[in-house]
Amino acid sequence: MRLIGLTGGIGSGKSSVSAALARRGALVVDADAIVHELQRPGTVVFDEMVERFGPGIVAADGTLDRPAVAAIVFADPEALSDLGGIVHPRVHEEIERRVAEAAGTDQVVVLDIPLLDRNGWPGLEGTIVVDLDPEVAVERLVAHRGMPEADARARIANQADRQDRLALADFVIDNSGTLEDLEGEVDRAWTWIESLD
Fold this sequence. Notes:
- This protein is α/β, with parallel strands linked by helices.
- The chain folds into 2 domains: 1-26 and 107-197, P-loop containing nucleotide triphosphate hydrolases (Rossmann fold, 3-Layer(aba) Sandwich); 32-93.
- The chain contains 10 helices and 5 strands.
- Strands 2-3-1-4-5 form a 5-stranded parallel beta sheet, sandwiched between helices.
């Protein structure tokens, strides 16, 4: 197994890179997708979040109202810390379980983890950082996700500094161009992954 970390700021295009690596044969362990699974109604994480943040975070259909959660935690550092305390240990356990399943194979396993730059992960053979100017990331978040500009800027400000993230990179994917350009960048990254011993 080759264990590769993948990270990048919100709006950097990390999900597009992750999908492109999967098309090339990587097993992608997506921390954000795991979070969504663990926050479904009826789960321990969901129940603990409702207990901590109140019934206002539950949408009319009974699922988690993510914008309501974001409105609470991105305005209150203590609330954000509490959310991390509920979610992160469970996500960590599930990532470990999935990585253990691939151990002993010749599989390329990509850990797609937004906070990899803060928390690291043991056993990585290398880390890929998807890089994008924060101003372009704001534009893309507003245009493609319909996020209010102030929210986009607040989320970017809450993440690791761009230079700190780049300092962790063994390989940088520049996502400032077109989707076609990005495919070329991912091809370069895949060649790099295959060159690792």
